[in-house]
Design goal:
- The protein is α/β, with parallel strands linked by helices.
- It has one domain (4-120): Response regulator (Rossmann fold).
- It contains 4 helices and 5 strands, in the order E-H-E-H-E-H-E-E-H.
- The protein has helices at residues 12-24, 35-43, 65-75, 108-120, and strands at residues 4-8, 28-32, 53-57, 81-85, 100-103.
- The chain has a 5-stranded parallel β-sheet.
- Helix 2 runs parallel beside helix 3.
- The longest helix is centred in the first third of the chain and has 13 residues, at 12-24.
- The protein is globular.
């Protein structure tokens, strides 16, 4: 069974693009445009498969990425998280949350390399 990735991005075009890249690479991708809804679904085990990796944007309306990850860590402290943001200083908001941070634009090959390392448990630089 392929790894299941929860992809959260309020930008539907970016979410669809990343979802396509990841699906073509063989991953099962659940894209959610609203972080609050994704959090509710994750907390209530409403997804069709266990989540192996979360990919989230940082700037989103209602709840930003660091708020989302802070909440996730209260009930799922070990799930790998990849944060993708256009703001270099956004990484500071994730101190102590055990995440991997990548800057936009993230080329497809770099996205896939990061995802592969995270779902296989390899050390991420």
């Amino acid at each position: 069974m392929p790894a299941t990735i929860l992809l959260i991005d309020d930008n539907a075009v970016q979410a669809a693009t990343r979802q396509t890249i990841l699906k073509r690479a063989g991953y099962f991708v659940i894209a959610v445009l609203n972080p609050e809804r994704a959090l509710e679904q994750f907390r209530n085990n409403e997804f069709p498969a266990p989540i192996d990796l979360i990919i989230t944007d940082h700037i989103m309306p209602g709840m930003n990425g660091s708020e989302f990850v802070t909440e996730v860590r209260t009930f799922s402290p070990k799930v790998p998280v990849l944060v993708i943001s256009g703001l270099a200083d956004a990484e500071e908001a994730y101190t102590g949350l055990n995440i991997n941070f990548r800057l936009k634009p993230l080329l497809p090959d770099n996205l896939l390399a990061s995802v592969h390392r995270l779902v296989t448990g390899a050390a991420v630089q």
